[in-house]
């Protein structure tokens, strides 16, 4: 199997989490950059990372990188890369692009140049003047940053946050990748209770259950690279079999959530059912003021309303105050609250133990982290032989 340069793209602020996930899959040659994590792997790594990465957006194959200050530079640099090694004669290969702080600022023009260069390279290999492009899809991206062009092929298709279980959405849904990141950052384990008093469509709770049972998040969806000759069906079958073998669904889970909106709870219940987790998750229609998480030493993980529209701010302040009262009453719990509010700690019994800047879409937020006591260690009651 060949050694490939691969890129896992992700929202700003999640790079370290994605890097840890990549390493946990056994890939050590990892470099963290803004919005991306680069690593070395083989064809099977493409399958595994698409199936398993919970907080990344896409897995890209890095075809090449070079300086491109002129269209000639971009054409020649692109044509020098071995596109036919990946794209068959019948492959579909659209070109997408973006440019930042580069002399080649016209993205459509750059896309056209790259397309032309790839076609010329393909003509040399396949000895034809015309490509039908009616086969598997290979989306090429040209990304220009400070006059450096990076050429990639997207193996993922629709972003990895599209797990397949959420058919309906609430008004302001939290992406599955961000929900998984919040659970990851809380260091929650499945032997602890978990509660979300603003659960909306239930994404945090579903992502926690999937993590608790070691369910590969990409197991219910498909990827364009499943149909690529260079990877082959056998590798995808191997990766999926590994994922099914890793599933551990006999662990009891104590995961629940509530929301004041009955329609949101309906959406959450439908999503939990689609994810195969309806029996494991409990949902309640109730305001945060009446939320009553059960048990001790749990994790409260939530994304309360932001109140972006005029006139909503007072309601948000009231709700945050009630959330602060709830967390203050949970003496053995740890609480993790994602919010853009600069005043959130004012409504809580004490300042956060730790803050972390994250971006929920384009909204800059803080993850306010309140650490409770760790659960007592369970004694080993098994007899000593």
Low-confidence stretches: 381-385
The amount of beta strand, in percent, is 15-25%
Q: In CATH's first tier, which class of the largest domain applies?
A: Alpha Beta
Strand tally: 14
Strand ordering within the main sheet: 2-3-1-4-7-6-5
Tell me the CATH architecture of the largest domain: 3-Layer(aba) Sandwich
Number of helices: 9
User: CATH homologous superfamily of the largest domain, by name?
Assistant: Vaccinia Virus protein VP39
Radius of gyration, whole Å: 24 Å
Q: Which descriptor suits the 3D outline?
A: elongated
Topology-level CATH name of the largest domain: Rossmann fold
Average predicted local confidence, pLDDT: 94
Largest sheet: 7 strands, mixed
Structural class of the helix and strand makeup? alpha/beta
Gap between N and C termini, in Å?
A: 47 Å
N to C succession of SSEs: EHEEHEHEHEEHEHHEHEEHEEE
Whole-number count of domains: 2
Assign a percent range to the helix content.
25-40%
